């Protein structure tokens, strides 16, 4: 293997028909590179398993000490509706399929407590802008 080549392997591959997905461990060998972008790895896996790269979800990557090897977890959903129904919201936000929460945690708590002191239309105005 020369510098810059990337090899992607899957381990412990299993089909999960109840959740309409395939799930596996991903091992990425990348000597001479600091790491591999998640979307690049997703595109390579989509080519390997003949699916849409948008249906591939990768997470939990850890780089081995000394570099050159990264391991993580991967899911390939059968279709986009299954992905949106099953995946947690924070992963959908990472993929750009959902909108992140509005405002910081402190702002949301303050808005909630201001709304507690109002009733009717005034409360709805505070909560929903």
Automatic annotation (TrEMBL):
Q: Which Gene3D superfamilies does the entry mention? A: 3.30.70.3370
Q: Which residues form a coiled coil?
A: none
| SUPFAM superfamilies for this protein | Ribosomal proteins S24e, L23 and L15e
Please report a single Pfam family linked to this protein: Ribosomal_S24e
UniProt keyword terms in alphabetical order: Ribonucleoprotein, Ribosomal protein
State if Phosphoprotein is listed as a keyword: no
Q: Name one GO biological process term.
A: translation
Residue spans of biased composition, Basic residues class: 106-129
Highest taxon in the source lineage: Eukaryota
GO-annotated molecular function: structural constituent of ribosome
- Gene Ontology cellular-component terms listed: ribonucleoprotein complex; ribosome
Return the annotated region ranges for Disordered.
96-129
Family (UniProt): Belongs to the eukaryotic ribosomal protein eS24 family.
This chain belongs to the protein called: 40S ribosomal protein S24
């Amino acid at each position: 293997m020369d510098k810059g080549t990337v090899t992607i392997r899957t381990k412990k591959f299993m089909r999960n028909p109840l959740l309409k997905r395939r799930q596996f461990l991903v091992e990425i060998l990348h000597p001479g590179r600091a790491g591999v972008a998640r979307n690049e790895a997703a595109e390579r896996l989509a080519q390997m398993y003949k699916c849409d790269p948008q249906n591939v979800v990768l997470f939990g990557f850890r780089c081995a000490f000394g570099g050159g090897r990264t391991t993580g977890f991967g899911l390939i959903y059968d279709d986009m509706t299954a992905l949106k129904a099953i995946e947690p919201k924070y992963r959908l936000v990472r993929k750009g399929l959902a909108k992140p929460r509005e405002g910081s945690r402190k702002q949301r708590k303050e808005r909630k407590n201001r709304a507690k002191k109002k009733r009717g239309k005034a409360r709805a105005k505070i909560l929903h802008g």
